[in-house]
Amino acid sequence: MLSTMAASELAALRAVYEPLTQSVRKLIDVTIRTQADAATATAAKDAIDRVTDELGTTLLEGSFGVQHTSDGQPMVWGNVVMGLRNPAAPPLIVHHEPDGRVWSDVVLGAAYEGPAGHVHGGVCAMLLDHVLGATAHKPGQPAVTGTLTTRYRRGTRLGCPLRLEAHVDRVEGVKTFAVGRITDPEGVTVEADGIFIHPR
Amino acid sequence: MLSTMAASELAALRAVYEPLTQSVRKLIDVTIRTQADAATATAAKDAIDRVTDELGTTLLEGSFGVQHTSDGQPMVWGNVVMGLRNPAAPPLIVHHEPDGRVWSDVVLGAAYEGPAGHVHGGVCAMLLDHVLGATAHKPGQPAVTGTLTTRYRRGTRLGCPLRLEAHVDRVEGVKTFAVGRITDPEGVTVEADGIFIHPR
């Protein structure tokens, strides 16, 4: 449970950085899809460089990492899959059910393309790694991937509602064996199983 | 071999869109790492939205797909791993050796984070999918992933020179069995094997 202080601190930080990140996500999409002429593209580049200079005067060293509110709540906001401050993240919103099942709904756009009109197979693997791994995570006890196997049944389309889901098959000591899949409105596109490890 | 026309057409398109994309890549990085105050973040958001509106007046429908120069050279510039017009792509530059080996050198920054200071395990899987798959690609005969297994030996650090490499283990009919790995200066961090299929 969040303390009142942490909750208002999180809300304040989120109000500053989430709209900025969402705007950069839209910019990524149009950067891929624009047919702008050279003059427009150059003017856009120059405007972006000015924003980057402005934001860059106060940078964290290295990467976002895991930061904490003043009373210790973790923020994994730089994460490439779920980070609300990472414009390259969809971001995935991961739901945990009381019975241990984990799921997430997402629509992936032009930024996630592999084969024309389809999600890159590697993106499917990336998102499944995250969702299967989430079945093994416990507060203060992150799990790391030991092995992940993805089996592709057919192409996963861009711009289509996708459900990612996973559950624990069994636990053996520090190892959690998880299984999961991606489905679109026509059924399963990718299946996965993985072993996730709580480092001793 | 590129015709002269295709080569100059590609160079012209690249000169327009590659600098723009590179600028958006830098913007992604600072968006994650900035400690800008609310006023600065809001001004940045507004400036970005203006650029997005400008670039968005001439959008391709859907996604970039595979486009072609006037004489048929393919451009996979929207690809999430190697697309030179995709700001979310590192982008990976994939080298093919005459003996069939495939390799790529890359340094991954804050945008690819999973565990603090480390590359997300799912990103490792995504990049290995791409590099292993590249061993099976032939001009006009793309291969799709059938199965991919990644085994994590230890964490892969952000900001560190990484080598991705893959080769064909064997070919059985439409199936190419490939193996590969990621190494950093201290050795192997992730190993992978996969089956890639040429659709009949």
From TrEMBL, chains A, B:
GO cellular component: cytoplasm; membrane
A Pfam family annotated for this UniProt entry: 4HBT
UniProt GO MF annotations: hydrolase activity
Topological category with respect to the lipid bilayer: Peripheral membrane protein
Keyword presence, Membrane: yes
Residue intervals of the Thioesterase domain: 117-190
Keyword ATP-binding: no
EC number: 3.1.2.2
GO biological process: fatty acid metabolic process
Main location: membrane
Record-linked InterPro entries: HotDog_dom_sf, THEM4/THEM5_acyl-CoA_thioest, Thioestr_dom
Keywords, in A-Z order: Apoptosis, Cell membrane, Cell projection, Cytoplasm, Fatty acid metabolism, Hydrolase, Lipid metabolism, Membrane, Transit peptide
Coiled coil start-end: none
Compartment(s) where it occurs, according to its Swiss-Prot or TrEMBL record: Cell projection, Ruffle membrane; Cytoplasm; Membrane
Span of the signal peptide: none
CDD domains: PaaI_thioesterase (cd03443)
Reactions mediated catalytically: tetradecanoyl-CoA + H2O = tetradecanoate + CoA + H(+); (5Z,8Z,11Z,14Z)-eicosatetraenoyl-CoA + H2O = (5Z,8Z,11Z,14Z)-eicosatetraenoate + CoA + H(+); octanoyl-CoA + H2O = octanoate + CoA + H(+); dodecanoyl-CoA + H2O = dodecanoate + CoA + H(+)
Family affiliation: Belongs to the THEM4/THEM5 thioesterase family.
Protein name (Swiss-Prot/TrEMBL): Acyl-coenzyme A thioesterase THEM4
Protein species of origin: Mycolicibacterium flavescens
